[in-house]
Each structure stands twice: as structure tokens, then as C-alpha cells.
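Figure 2 data, in text form.
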Amino acid sequence: MRKLPKVDVVIVGVGWAGGIIASELTKQGLQVVGLERGKERKTEDYFMVHDELRYALRYDLMQDLSKETITFRGNEKVRALPMRQYGSFLLGDGLGGSGVHWNGQTFRFLPYDFEIRSKTIEKYGKNKIPAEMTLQDWGITYDQLEPYYDKFEKTTGISGEENPLGGKRSDKYPNPPMKKSPAMKMFEDATKKMNLHPYMMPSANLSQSYKNPDGIERAACQYCAYCERFGCEYGAKADPVVTVIPVAKKTGKFEIRTHSIVRRILKTGNKVTGVMYTDVTTGEEIEQPADIVVLTSYVFNNLRLLLMSNIGKPYNPVSGTGVIGKNYAYQVIKGNAVGFFNNKEFNTFAGAGALGVTLDDYNGDNFDHSNLDFIHGGIVSYTQTGMRPIQNNAVPGGGPTWGKEFKDKSLKYANRYLAVAAQGSSMPFKHHYLDLDPTYKDAYGDPLIRITFDFENQDRNLATFLAGKCADILKEMGADHIDSLKELGPYDITTYQSTHNTGGIIMGADPQTSAVNNYLQMWDVDNLFVVGASAFSHNSGYNPTDTVGALAYRAAEGIMKYHDKGGQVV
């Protein structure tokens, strides 16, 4: 194995978290190497490639599941099997990671989220939390994290308006909200009549040209509707490749090595000494020594590297001891309703990834849960992300799904239906966790990550509650026919929902129940930081990226403190 010269910091994965860490540390003068298993990416790669088949259906920006995937089971009584085709979530690959193919919906979590166990018990008593639910506070408050939210939103140029039911802001969004379509105005008017609190969705798709605090200039969104699963040809959608990575590269202290799959974290005593990776282009195994190692890859890979490198105590779902793999959570996306309009047409082919109106009246603890058999909630939104032709062909339920009548209805309702959707939170349970699969391995002979997860009564009750609220809004909007979720079945890994996987290396104030402190520094190994949604001890009713970005900025601050003084950062 070839050994390279030591650097100050090596980061594993160059997406949002890795890009932020690299830009912040190199600005402070540290020498940083970023290892990325995928290929190089730049904005020019997406010029004139509005190709739904290539990107949305054949997953051109995603990980190759024939070489590396995950295994899944609903419970411990059944054998986990590999995910052989994409469904429930999409794992990004290449420079920028999932930050390239995201929609740009950039919400802050609620103050309630960070102190969820304490706040729930304080208001409803301990019995409100099911015995199997491993709910815990994050070891940080919203007020402590708020300055880092602000920093991420200014770096990315978020376009939005203040959430009337959200946490206090130290400053407004750096850009005004996006344009409001007629359908969005219908949703806004209807929900205001219902005494709800709609607001424009915070968007990483720029509403106007913008220059951020690092001097990065980007153009305004063109509303082409090719956001989710696509790279942005204008650079209008914030992604790491057009925001933070150029800042790090400009310092001359950041080296990116693509096609580099990190397979082990190297450790001596209670310190890590670097990483071992395979150069995919040659097959060579290489050691990269470093004073500080930062894991900034996706949830599953962060966790997999810790387990394969024997760092931290693996979670045991029977005893409830250990922390690595604990509190895996996903998202409840199934609470939705579709309204069909006989005499109204909408131009739903146009849009942007984060173009929409949303409300938080049913999110967090913004409503009384005393007589409800669940905690938390979710956002309810109408989003106009663009109805691309292959993937969208809704007809009213109850009729045939093929033949002449189906075709006639497909043509009639092509531009006459709107979906109001909820995105619900996901609470952690003792028997939902991540570990190494004992049977299946990747192309290099390393074990795959195994997910053990299913929807609980908490999720089923939440989903039907939110679906009912969505249907009520569509009724107020004047829909002639409404189809909505009536019952949430078992979790289905074959149907797309979101790529909002969280947990496994959770943050907290106690080393017995968490893996990292609130700077995302490992309790067990103080020169190892693990940054990303793997730190979430539950998943909120929002998209995770704003919180990932905020935590990354805080982690960068913690890394510098460690670099200067050593020891556990406080």
C-alpha cells in the first residue's frame, strides 16, 4: 500500500458537508484533501440536457447499484435483501453528491425539534412517548444553531419569506421569494380562508442574480423545472460545485481526488491517523495520513466506515446499548391528496425544485396533540416542481388504469390536476437501526449496510391525519374530485418517497446515548468528526439540507478549535 505525505485534514465525500468543511478550513490556512468516490462535475456538464429519460428514470447522477448498494428488511425476523433497483431513495454519486440532484427546498427545523423529548414530556407527560420510541434531545438548541443556519442561507442565497410559525431569525433571507403561479395563489388564498399560515417555500433556486459573502456570483432561476434528479445548467440552484467548492479551490490548499473510494479509517490507540482508499482507475490501495479525519459522505457511508473500522460501540437493538447505528429515521411522505378540476387548466409543466407555498400549522408541536395518537407532524405544501411528461399521468381514482377510458381521462386531466402533499416527520424506534450485513458485500469485498425499518402506528396515524388536511385544502380550492391516502401500508422500498435518510451517528450531550457532541466530534476519538444527517436523532417534517449545512458550519468551527487546542471541543 502506497503511503502519501500527511496533510492537516482529510475529508471523505465532497458534497454539501465536505464542501463547507473544505471552504472554511482552507480559508483558515489548513491543508485539506477531499476524497470523492465519483467523478468530477461542473456546470457545463448540464448545458442543454433536459433529458427526463436519462436523469429522472435512468438515474444518471446516482450511485451504481451493481457495485454498491444497501440491504433492507422490515424487521429482524426476515432476511435482508439488496436493493437492486432505485425506488424509495436515490443515492447521489460524484462531486457535489446529492447536493447536485436535490430540489433546493431549504427549511430550518423548529425549535421544538432540538429539544423534542424534553418539550414533549413537559407538555404531555412521559406516557405520550411510546415505550419503544428512542426519542432524545439533540444536545443543542435552535438558538445555538441559528447563526449557522443564517450563514448557510447566505452562502447558498436562499430566496424566501419568514415562516410565521418558525423559530426567530437574526436576519431575513438574502433574496426575496420566487414567483407565485396561479395555482400557488389558489393554495395561499384557500389556506388563509381556513385560518392557516401559508408562506413561500424557502428556495435554493435563486429568485434574482446574487453574489454571496464569499464573492460567488450566480444567475437567477429560469423556471425550467429540471431540478430534482438533474444538475442545474444555469448554476441558479445552489449546489456545492457552484458555491463552496470553488472557494476552497481558490485558496490553493484544497486538493480533490475523484474516483477514490475510502474503505477504512486508520486508527492507533484513541486517535485516527488517516484513511485507506482505493483508486478506482488503477485498483491501487493508498494510505492518506492526516491530523484530523472528517467523514462528510452520505448517512450510510459515514456509518459503514465507522463499523468497518471498529470505531465506536455498535448499537444493540436488544439491549439498547451502543450508539453506532442507532436511531435510523426516514420520512413519511405518503400524506397527500390529488384534486381534479373539470373546468380549470394549469401550466404545471413549468416550475422549479423549490417553487411552492407551504404551511407549518400541522408541523412539530404547533398544534395540540393531546387527543392524537402520534407526536410531531409535517409540512403541508403545494409545490410546482414541473410535471415532466413521462412521470406524470394522473387520472381520478375508481376508474380503469388502461384502455380507451383511461386514455381519454389522461388527456382531459393532463393540465387539470393539482397535488397538495404533506411531508411528515419520522420518529426513532428501538428496532429501527443500521448495521453491517453479514451476507452481502460490495465490489471490493466489504459488507453492505443493512437497514432494518418499517412504518409504525406513529407513522400511520400521522400520515392519515395529514392526508385529511391536504384533502380539506383541495376542497377549499374547488377541486371537483379528490383522491387522498386512506391508510398507510408497510414501508415500501420500491416506491420513491425522498432521499431524507437520517441518524445512525447521532449527536447529543451524553456519550452513553450519542456518538458525537454538538460540534459533531466523536466522543471516543477526538480527532474524528462525522458531519451530515447521520447526526440527526430523529427526522423532522422538513427537508434536511438546511440543518446539514448549519451543522457543517458549526463542525468547521469545532474542527478549528480542536486544531488549535486539542481535546473535546466545548
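Caption note: Residues 2-565 form a domain with the FAD/NAD(P)-binding domain fold (CATH 3.50.50.60).
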